[in-house]
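Researcher: I'd like a candidate sequence for this fold, 437 residues long. If you have to choose between options at a position, lean toward the conservative one.
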Protein backbone atom coordinates (compact mmCIF):
# COMPACT_ATOMS: atom_id res chain seq x y z
CA UNK A 1 0.00 0.00 0.00
CA UNK A 2 1.27 3.49 -0.81
CA UNK A 3 1.65 5.71 2.20
CA UNK A 4 -0.31 8.97 2.25
CA UNK A 5 1.38 11.84 4.07
CA UNK A 6 -0.04 14.89 5.79
CA UNK A 7 2.13 18.01 5.97
CA UNK A 8 1.28 20.14 9.00
CA UNK A 9 2.92 23.38 10.14
CA UNK A 10 3.69 23.16 13.86
CA UNK A 11 4.17 26.87 14.64
CA UNK A 12 2.61 30.12 13.35
CA UNK A 13 3.02 29.30 9.67
CA UNK A 14 5.87 29.75 7.18
CA UNK A 15 7.74 26.73 8.50
CA UNK A 16 8.72 25.74 4.95
CA UNK A 17 5.73 23.47 4.21
CA UNK A 18 5.70 24.31 0.50
CA UNK A 19 9.29 23.17 -0.01
CA UNK A 20 8.67 19.90 1.80
CA UNK A 21 5.47 19.19 -0.15
CA UNK A 22 7.44 19.76 -3.35
CA UNK A 23 10.18 17.35 -2.21
CA UNK A 24 7.72 14.63 -1.19
CA UNK A 25 5.57 15.00 -4.30
CA UNK A 26 8.16 13.25 -6.45
CA UNK A 27 6.57 9.91 -5.62
CA UNK A 28 2.97 11.09 -5.11
CA UNK A 29 -0.08 11.07 -7.39
CA UNK A 30 -2.25 13.71 -5.72
CA UNK A 31 -1.63 16.81 -3.60
CA UNK A 32 -4.64 18.17 -1.73
CA UNK A 33 -5.20 21.54 -0.05
CA UNK A 34 -8.05 21.33 2.44
CA UNK A 35 -8.25 24.66 4.31
CA UNK A 36 -7.26 28.31 4.18
CA UNK A 37 -7.08 30.36 1.03
CA UNK A 38 -4.72 32.77 -0.66
CA UNK A 39 -3.56 33.97 2.76
CA UNK A 40 -1.03 31.12 2.46
CA UNK A 41 2.29 31.73 0.74
CA UNK A 42 4.27 28.57 0.00
CA UNK A 43 7.72 29.02 -1.53
CA UNK A 44 9.40 26.50 -3.81
CA UNK A 45 12.95 26.87 -5.06
CA UNK A 46 14.01 24.72 -7.98
CA UNK A 47 17.20 25.36 -10.00
CA UNK A 48 17.61 28.71 -8.25
CA UNK A 49 14.15 29.79 -9.40
CA UNK A 50 11.69 30.85 -6.71
CA UNK A 51 7.95 30.28 -7.10
CA UNK A 52 5.41 31.37 -4.49
CA UNK A 53 2.06 29.59 -4.47
CA UNK A 54 -0.96 30.81 -2.56
CA UNK A 55 -3.84 28.56 -3.61
CA UNK A 56 -2.53 25.98 -6.05
CA UNK A 57 -1.04 23.00 -4.16
CA UNK A 58 2.75 22.86 -3.99
CA UNK A 59 2.93 19.61 -5.98
CA UNK A 60 2.12 21.41 -9.23
CA UNK A 61 5.74 21.54 -10.45
CA UNK A 62 5.74 17.75 -10.88
CA UNK A 63 4.01 17.10 -14.19
CA UNK A 64 2.53 13.77 -13.23
CA UNK A 65 0.69 15.10 -10.18
CA UNK A 66 -2.96 16.03 -9.87
CA UNK A 67 -3.73 18.91 -7.51
CA UNK A 68 -6.99 19.19 -5.61
CA UNK A 69 -8.68 22.00 -3.69
CA UNK A 70 -11.06 20.47 -1.16
CA UNK A 71 -14.30 21.99 0.09
CA UNK A 72 -12.52 23.56 3.09
CA UNK A 73 -10.51 25.94 0.90
CA UNK A 74 -11.88 29.46 0.46
CA UNK A 75 -11.29 30.62 -3.10
CA UNK A 76 -10.78 34.09 -4.45
CA UNK A 77 -11.64 33.65 -8.15
CA UNK A 78 -9.32 36.52 -9.02
CA UNK A 79 -6.54 35.07 -6.85
CA UNK A 80 -6.92 31.75 -8.61
CA UNK A 81 -6.92 33.32 -12.08
CA UNK A 82 -3.76 35.32 -11.25
CA UNK A 83 -2.00 32.20 -10.02
CA UNK A 84 -2.97 30.08 -13.00
CA UNK A 85 -1.70 32.86 -15.28
CA UNK A 86 1.54 33.12 -13.31
CA UNK A 87 2.10 29.37 -13.67
CA UNK A 88 1.22 29.26 -17.34
CA UNK A 89 3.70 32.12 -17.84
CA UNK A 90 6.30 29.69 -16.49
CA UNK A 91 5.15 27.04 -18.93
CA UNK A 92 3.25 25.05 -16.31
CA UNK A 93 -0.13 23.94 -17.57
CA UNK A 94 -2.90 23.15 -15.12
CA UNK A 95 -5.21 21.58 -17.68
CA UNK A 96 -6.47 18.29 -16.36
CA UNK A 97 -4.25 18.71 -13.30
CA UNK A 98 -6.25 20.98 -10.99
CA UNK A 99 -9.68 20.10 -9.62
CA UNK A 100 -11.82 22.11 -7.25
CA UNK A 101 -14.70 21.15 -4.98
CA UNK A 102 -18.15 22.50 -5.89
CA UNK A 103 -18.47 23.41 -2.22
CA UNK A 104 -15.53 25.77 -1.91
CA UNK A 105 -16.74 29.12 -0.52
CA UNK A 106 -15.92 32.11 -2.71
CA UNK A 107 -13.99 35.15 -1.48
CA UNK A 108 -15.31 38.30 -3.12
CA UNK A 109 -14.44 41.98 -2.89
CA UNK A 110 -16.87 42.67 -0.03
CA UNK A 111 -15.02 40.11 2.13
CA UNK A 112 -11.73 41.86 1.49
CA UNK A 113 -13.26 45.26 2.20
CA UNK A 114 -14.78 43.96 5.43
CA UNK A 115 -11.45 42.43 6.49
CA UNK A 116 -9.67 45.76 5.92
CA UNK A 117 -12.34 47.89 7.64
CA UNK A 118 -12.45 45.63 10.68
CA UNK A 119 -8.72 45.61 11.09
CA UNK A 120 -8.74 49.39 10.80
CA UNK A 121 -11.43 49.69 13.47
CA UNK A 122 -9.54 47.35 15.83
CA UNK A 123 -6.53 49.62 15.42
CA UNK A 124 -3.89 48.59 17.99
CA UNK A 125 -5.89 45.46 18.84
CA UNK A 126 -5.95 44.31 15.20
CA UNK A 127 -5.19 40.69 14.33
CA UNK A 128 -2.79 41.65 11.59
CA UNK A 129 -4.60 39.58 8.97
CA UNK A 130 -3.35 39.20 5.43
CA UNK A 131 -6.34 41.35 4.35
CA UNK A 132 -7.38 38.69 1.86
CA UNK A 133 -10.96 38.44 3.17
CA UNK A 134 -10.40 35.04 4.78
CA UNK A 135 -12.28 35.61 8.06
CA UNK A 136 -15.40 37.17 6.49
CA UNK A 137 -15.56 34.43 3.82
CA UNK A 138 -15.49 31.69 6.47
CA UNK A 139 -18.12 33.59 8.48
CA UNK A 140 -20.42 33.50 5.46
CA UNK A 141 -19.89 29.76 5.22
CA UNK A 142 -20.71 29.18 8.87
CA UNK A 143 -23.79 31.40 8.67
CA UNK A 144 -24.85 29.47 5.54
CA UNK A 145 -25.19 32.74 3.71
CA UNK A 146 -22.23 32.95 1.34
CA UNK A 147 -21.65 31.85 -2.23
CA UNK A 148 -19.96 28.61 -3.17
CA UNK A 149 -18.37 27.59 -6.47
CA UNK A 150 -21.51 25.62 -7.38
CA UNK A 151 -23.62 28.81 -7.25
CA UNK A 152 -21.85 30.00 -10.39
CA UNK A 153 -23.74 27.48 -12.46
CA UNK A 154 -27.27 28.76 -11.78
CA UNK A 155 -27.21 32.32 -12.96
CA UNK A 156 -30.70 33.35 -11.79
CA UNK A 157 -30.08 32.00 -8.30
CA UNK A 158 -26.63 33.58 -8.29
CA UNK A 159 -28.04 37.02 -9.14
CA UNK A 160 -30.63 36.77 -6.39
CA UNK A 161 -28.25 35.48 -3.70
CA UNK A 162 -25.60 38.03 -4.57
CA UNK A 163 -28.15 40.85 -4.31
CA UNK A 164 -29.08 39.79 -0.80
CA UNK A 165 -25.44 39.51 0.25
CA UNK A 166 -24.34 42.81 -1.28
CA UNK A 167 -27.27 44.63 0.39
CA UNK A 168 -26.33 43.11 3.73
CA UNK A 169 -22.65 44.07 3.41
CA UNK A 170 -23.39 47.54 2.07
CA UNK A 171 -25.66 48.29 5.00
CA UNK A 172 -22.74 47.60 7.34
CA UNK A 173 -20.18 49.41 5.19
CA UNK A 174 -22.26 52.57 5.01
CA UNK A 175 -24.00 52.68 8.38
CA UNK A 176 -21.56 51.01 10.73
CA UNK A 177 -18.17 51.57 9.13
CA UNK A 178 -19.11 54.94 7.54
CA UNK A 179 -17.46 53.77 4.34
CA UNK A 180 -18.54 53.46 0.72
CA UNK A 181 -20.73 50.64 -0.65
CA UNK A 182 -19.52 47.99 -3.11
CA UNK A 183 -21.14 47.80 -6.53
CA UNK A 184 -23.43 44.84 -7.21
CA UNK A 185 -23.09 44.99 -11.02
CA UNK A 186 -19.29 45.04 -10.91
CA UNK A 187 -19.13 42.01 -8.62
CA UNK A 188 -21.68 40.10 -10.69
CA UNK A 189 -19.78 40.83 -13.87
CA UNK A 190 -16.49 39.68 -12.31
CA UNK A 191 -18.15 36.54 -11.02
CA UNK A 192 -19.63 35.65 -14.39
CA UNK A 193 -16.29 36.24 -16.04
CA UNK A 194 -14.53 34.05 -13.50
CA UNK A 195 -16.79 31.11 -14.37
CA UNK A 196 -14.38 29.97 -17.03
CA UNK A 197 -11.60 29.31 -14.53
CA UNK A 198 -13.83 26.76 -12.81
CA UNK A 199 -15.09 25.17 -16.03
CA UNK A 200 -14.02 21.52 -16.35
CA UNK A 201 -12.29 21.86 -13.00
CA UNK A 202 -15.10 21.41 -10.48
CA UNK A 203 -15.48 17.92 -9.07
CA UNK A 204 -16.69 15.95 -6.08
CA UNK A 205 -13.31 15.89 -4.35
CA UNK A 206 -14.36 13.40 -1.65
CA UNK A 207 -15.37 10.95 -4.37
CA UNK A 208 -12.13 11.55 -6.25
CA UNK A 209 -10.20 10.74 -3.08
CA UNK A 210 -12.17 7.51 -2.64
CA UNK A 211 -11.32 6.57 -6.21
CA UNK A 212 -7.67 7.35 -5.50
CA UNK A 213 -7.76 5.04 -2.50
CA UNK A 214 -9.33 2.27 -4.56
CA UNK A 215 -6.62 2.68 -7.21
CA UNK A 216 -3.87 2.66 -4.57
CA UNK A 217 -2.71 6.18 -5.46
CA UNK A 218 -0.44 8.13 -3.16
CA UNK A 219 -1.82 11.34 -1.69
CA UNK A 220 -0.13 14.28 0.05
CA UNK A 221 -2.35 16.52 2.16
CA UNK A 222 -0.87 20.01 2.21
CA UNK A 223 -1.64 22.00 5.33
CA UNK A 224 -1.55 25.77 5.22
CA UNK A 225 -0.76 28.17 8.08
CA UNK A 226 0.40 26.44 11.29
CA UNK A 227 -1.12 24.66 14.27
CA UNK A 228 -0.76 27.73 16.51
CA UNK A 229 -2.88 29.71 14.04
CA UNK A 230 -5.72 27.16 14.27
CA UNK A 231 -9.09 28.76 14.94
CA UNK A 232 -9.84 26.38 17.83
CA UNK A 233 -6.45 25.32 19.18
CA UNK A 234 -4.27 28.32 18.38
CA UNK A 235 -3.53 31.60 20.13
CA UNK A 236 -7.12 32.89 19.78
CA UNK A 237 -8.17 35.49 18.73
CA UNK A 238 -4.82 35.99 16.96
CA UNK A 239 -5.41 33.09 14.62
CA UNK A 240 -6.73 32.43 11.16
CA UNK A 241 -10.34 31.38 10.53
CA UNK A 242 -9.85 27.72 9.60
CA UNK A 243 -8.61 24.54 11.25
CA UNK A 244 -4.93 24.14 10.51
CA UNK A 245 -4.68 21.25 12.98
CA UNK A 246 -5.23 17.64 11.93
CA UNK A 247 -9.04 17.59 11.96
CA UNK A 248 -9.18 20.11 9.12
CA UNK A 249 -8.22 17.37 6.66
CA UNK A 250 -11.41 15.41 7.14
CA UNK A 251 -13.87 18.27 7.18
CA UNK A 252 -11.98 20.14 4.47
CA UNK A 253 -11.52 17.41 1.86
CA UNK A 254 -13.80 14.49 2.67
CA UNK A 255 -10.80 12.17 3.02
CA UNK A 256 -11.44 9.04 5.05
CA UNK A 257 -9.67 8.47 8.36
CA UNK A 258 -8.09 5.35 6.81
CA UNK A 259 -6.49 7.53 4.14
CA UNK A 260 -4.21 9.29 6.59
CA UNK A 261 -1.15 7.13 7.13
CA UNK A 262 1.63 9.45 8.19
CA UNK A 263 1.55 12.93 9.72
CA UNK A 264 4.73 14.91 9.20
CA UNK A 265 5.00 18.00 11.40
CA UNK A 266 7.06 20.80 9.88
CA UNK A 267 8.98 22.85 12.42
CA UNK A 268 11.35 25.72 11.84
CA UNK A 269 14.61 25.53 13.84
CA UNK A 270 13.55 28.82 15.49
CA UNK A 271 10.17 30.58 15.49
CA UNK A 272 8.50 33.27 13.44
CA UNK A 273 5.08 34.85 13.32
CA UNK A 274 3.50 37.54 11.11
CA UNK A 275 0.73 39.69 12.48
CA UNK A 276 -0.22 40.32 16.09
CA UNK A 277 -0.64 38.01 19.06
CA UNK A 278 1.32 36.28 21.79
CA UNK A 279 4.86 35.14 21.00
CA UNK A 280 6.52 34.24 24.32
CA UNK A 281 10.03 33.61 22.92
CA UNK A 282 10.03 36.68 20.68
CA UNK A 283 13.35 38.49 20.21
CA UNK A 284 13.75 42.20 19.79
CA UNK A 285 17.54 42.40 19.84
CA UNK A 286 20.30 41.85 17.30
CA UNK A 287 19.44 38.15 17.06
CA UNK A 288 16.05 39.20 15.66
CA UNK A 289 17.84 41.19 12.96
CA UNK A 290 20.08 38.19 12.35
CA UNK A 291 17.11 35.82 11.85
CA UNK A 292 15.32 38.28 9.56
CA UNK A 293 18.44 38.84 7.47
CA UNK A 294 19.82 35.31 7.26
CA UNK A 295 16.42 33.57 7.22
CA UNK A 296 14.98 36.17 4.81
CA UNK A 297 12.02 36.44 7.13
CA UNK A 298 9.58 38.50 5.12
CA UNK A 299 6.02 37.26 4.51
CA UNK A 300 5.52 35.37 1.24
CA UNK A 301 2.00 36.79 0.89
CA UNK A 302 2.17 40.31 2.29
CA UNK A 303 5.91 41.05 2.34
CA UNK A 304 5.67 42.02 6.02
CA UNK A 305 8.75 41.59 8.21
CA UNK A 306 8.20 38.47 10.30
CA UNK A 307 8.62 38.59 14.06
CA UNK A 308 11.29 36.10 15.17
CA UNK A 309 12.17 34.20 18.34
CA UNK A 310 13.72 31.06 19.80
CA UNK A 311 12.26 27.62 19.26
CA UNK A 312 9.47 27.00 21.77
CA UNK A 313 9.60 23.33 22.72
CA UNK A 314 6.71 23.62 25.17
CA UNK A 315 4.31 24.76 22.47
CA UNK A 316 5.86 22.36 19.96
CA UNK A 317 5.28 19.38 22.22
CA UNK A 318 1.69 20.39 22.75
CA UNK A 319 1.12 20.55 19.01
CA UNK A 320 2.94 17.26 18.36
CA UNK A 321 0.60 15.46 20.73
CA UNK A 322 -2.57 17.28 19.67
CA UNK A 323 -1.96 16.53 15.98
CA UNK A 324 -0.87 12.89 16.41
CA UNK A 325 2.42 13.70 14.69
CA UNK A 326 4.26 10.63 13.32
CA UNK A 327 7.58 12.40 12.88
CA UNK A 328 9.06 15.85 12.43
CA UNK A 329 10.87 17.68 9.67
CA UNK A 330 13.19 20.41 10.98
CA UNK A 331 13.57 23.28 8.51
CA UNK A 332 15.92 26.24 8.15
CA UNK A 333 18.56 24.61 10.34
CA UNK A 334 21.19 26.39 8.22
CA UNK A 335 19.88 29.75 9.45
CA UNK A 336 21.40 28.97 12.88
CA UNK A 337 24.87 28.56 11.33
CA UNK A 338 26.24 31.91 12.50
CA UNK A 339 25.08 31.79 16.13
CA UNK A 340 27.51 31.03 18.94
CA UNK A 341 24.70 30.06 21.27
CA UNK A 342 21.19 28.82 20.60
CA UNK A 343 18.33 28.96 23.07
CA UNK A 344 15.27 26.74 23.27
CA UNK A 345 12.29 27.31 25.56
CA UNK A 346 11.78 24.29 27.79
CA UNK A 347 9.32 25.62 30.40
CA UNK A 348 7.45 28.71 31.56
CA UNK A 349 7.78 30.60 34.81
CA UNK A 350 4.74 32.27 36.31
CA UNK A 351 5.83 35.82 37.09
CA UNK A 352 3.46 36.13 40.05
CA UNK A 353 3.99 32.79 41.75
CA UNK A 354 7.48 31.85 40.47
CA UNK A 355 6.05 28.44 39.69
CA UNK A 356 7.79 26.75 36.75
CA UNK A 357 5.47 24.83 34.48
CA UNK A 358 6.23 22.76 31.47
CA UNK A 359 2.74 22.56 30.03
CA UNK A 360 0.82 25.85 30.02
CA UNK A 361 -1.76 24.04 27.94
CA UNK A 362 -4.63 26.42 28.19
CA UNK A 363 -2.76 29.62 28.80
CA UNK A 364 -5.15 32.52 29.09
CA UNK A 365 -2.72 35.28 29.78
CA UNK A 366 0.71 34.98 28.26
CA UNK A 367 1.83 38.21 29.92
CA UNK A 368 1.99 36.34 33.22
CA UNK A 369 4.60 33.90 31.93
CA UNK A 370 8.26 34.13 31.08
CA UNK A 371 10.05 31.46 29.03
CA UNK A 372 12.72 29.34 30.71
CA UNK A 373 15.55 28.59 28.30
CA UNK A 374 18.10 25.85 27.83
CA UNK A 375 21.20 27.14 26.07
CA UNK A 376 23.08 25.06 23.51
CA UNK A 377 26.38 25.83 21.82
CA UNK A 378 26.20 26.83 18.17
CA UNK A 379 28.25 25.03 15.51
CA UNK A 380 29.49 28.21 13.84
CA UNK A 381 29.99 26.76 10.37
CA UNK A 382 27.94 26.46 7.22
CA UNK A 383 25.68 23.45 6.84
CA UNK A 384 23.87 24.91 3.85
CA UNK A 385 22.95 22.29 1.29
CA UNK A 386 24.17 19.30 3.33
CA UNK A 387 22.21 16.18 2.34
CA UNK A 388 23.72 13.54 4.61
CA UNK A 389 23.05 13.52 8.34
CA UNK A 390 26.51 12.32 9.37
CA UNK A 391 28.03 15.35 7.61
CA UNK A 392 26.30 17.73 10.02
CA UNK A 393 28.64 19.13 12.71
CA UNK A 394 28.39 17.29 16.02
CA UNK A 395 26.83 20.34 17.72
CA UNK A 396 24.09 20.50 15.06
CA UNK A 397 23.38 16.81 15.62
CA UNK A 398 23.26 17.56 19.34
CA UNK A 399 20.65 20.30 18.75
CA UNK A 400 18.51 17.79 16.87
CA UNK A 401 18.89 15.13 19.59
CA UNK A 402 17.98 17.65 22.25
CA UNK A 403 14.70 18.49 20.49
CA UNK A 404 13.87 14.81 19.94
CA UNK A 405 14.63 13.99 23.55
CA UNK A 406 12.45 16.83 24.83
CA UNK A 407 9.49 15.94 22.58
CA UNK A 408 9.67 12.22 23.39
CA UNK A 409 6.55 10.19 22.51
CA UNK A 410 8.64 8.23 19.99
CA UNK A 411 8.59 11.22 17.63
CA UNK A 412 11.91 11.65 15.86
CA UNK A 413 13.22 14.21 13.39
CA UNK A 414 13.26 12.16 10.20
CA UNK A 415 13.86 14.97 7.73
CA UNK A 416 16.00 18.12 7.87
CA UNK A 417 16.03 21.07 5.52
CA UNK A 418 19.39 22.80 5.09
CA UNK A 419 18.46 25.40 2.48
CA UNK A 420 15.52 26.66 0.41
CA UNK A 421 16.27 24.51 -2.64
CA UNK A 422 14.46 21.25 -3.25
CA UNK A 423 17.82 19.46 -3.08
CA UNK A 424 18.93 20.96 0.26
CA UNK A 425 17.31 18.14 2.18
CA UNK A 426 18.44 15.39 4.53
CA UNK A 427 16.27 12.31 4.79
CA UNK A 428 17.40 10.98 8.15
CA UNK A 429 15.06 7.99 8.03
CA UNK A 430 12.64 7.27 5.20
CA UNK A 431 9.81 6.47 7.59
CA UNK A 432 7.38 8.08 5.16
CA UNK A 433 8.26 5.66 2.34
CA UNK A 434 9.15 8.15 -0.32
CA UNK A 435 11.89 5.97 -1.78
CA UNK A 436 14.12 9.04 -1.80
CA UNK A 437 17.21 8.82 -3.96
P1 LIG B 1 5.45 27.87 4.08
O1 LIG B 1 4.36 28.89 4.11
O2 LIG B 1 5.44 27.00 5.29
O3 LIG B 1 5.48 27.08 2.80
O4 LIG B 1 6.81 28.69 4.15
P2 LIG B 1 7.18 30.03 3.34
O5 LIG B 1 7.45 29.68 1.94
O6 LIG B 1 6.19 31.10 3.60
O7 LIG B 1 8.48 30.49 4.10
C1 LIG B 1 9.59 29.66 4.19
C2 LIG B 1 10.79 30.43 3.60
O8 LIG B 1 12.00 29.77 3.96
C3 LIG B 1 10.79 30.44 2.08
O9 LIG B 1 11.42 31.62 1.65
C4 LIG B 1 11.64 29.23 1.72
O10 LIG B 1 12.26 29.35 0.44
C5 LIG B 1 12.65 29.26 2.81
N1 LIG B 1 13.17 27.95 3.23
C6 LIG B 1 12.52 26.77 3.32
N2 LIG B 1 13.32 25.84 3.85
C7 LIG B 1 14.51 26.44 4.10
C8 LIG B 1 15.73 26.00 4.68
O11 LIG B 1 15.91 24.87 5.10
N3 LIG B 1 16.72 26.95 4.79
C9 LIG B 1 16.58 28.23 4.36
N4 LIG B 1 17.59 29.07 4.51
N5 LIG B 1 15.44 28.67 3.82
C10 LIG B 1 14.41 27.78 3.70
P1 LIG C 1 1.32 29.84 5.31
O1 LIG C 1 0.45 28.75 4.74
C1 LIG C 1 1.91 32.90 8.32
C2 LIG C 1 -1.68 34.87 9.84
C3 LIG C 1 -1.81 36.35 9.54
C4 LIG C 1 -2.56 36.80 10.79
C5 LIG C 1 -3.50 35.64 11.05
C6 LIG C 1 -4.91 35.85 10.49
O2 LIG C 1 2.15 30.54 4.30
O3 LIG C 1 2.11 29.34 6.47
P2 LIG C 1 -5.89 35.77 8.01
O4 LIG C 1 -5.57 36.59 6.80
O5 LIG C 1 -5.69 34.31 7.81
O6 LIG C 1 -7.25 36.09 8.57
O7 LIG C 1 -4.84 36.27 9.13
O8 LIG C 1 -2.92 34.50 10.43
N1 LIG C 1 -1.48 34.01 8.66
C7 LIG C 1 -0.30 33.45 8.34
N2 LIG C 1 0.92 33.62 8.89
N3 LIG C 1 1.74 32.05 7.29
C8 LIG C 1 0.52 31.88 6.75
O9 LIG C 1 0.28 30.94 5.82
C9 LIG C 1 -0.56 32.62 7.24
N4 LIG C 1 -1.88 32.72 6.92
C10 LIG C 1 -2.42 33.55 7.80
O10 LIG C 1 -0.56 36.97 9.42
O11 LIG C 1 -1.68 36.88 11.86
MG1 LIG D 1 4.13 30.95 4.03
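Model: Candidate sequence:
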Amino acid sequence: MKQNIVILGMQWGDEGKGKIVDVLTRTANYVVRYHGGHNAGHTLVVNNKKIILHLVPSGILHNHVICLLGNGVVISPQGLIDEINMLSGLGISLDGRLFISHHCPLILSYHIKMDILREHLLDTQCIGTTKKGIGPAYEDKVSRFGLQVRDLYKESVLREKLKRIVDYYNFQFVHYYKSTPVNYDTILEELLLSKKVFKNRTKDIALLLQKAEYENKKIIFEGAQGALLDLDHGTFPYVTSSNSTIGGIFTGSGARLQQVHFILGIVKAYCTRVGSGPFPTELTDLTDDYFVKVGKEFGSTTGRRRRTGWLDLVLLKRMVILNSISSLCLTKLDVLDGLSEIKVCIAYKNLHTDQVIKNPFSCLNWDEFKPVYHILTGWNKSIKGITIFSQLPFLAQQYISYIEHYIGHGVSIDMISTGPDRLDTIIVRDTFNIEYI
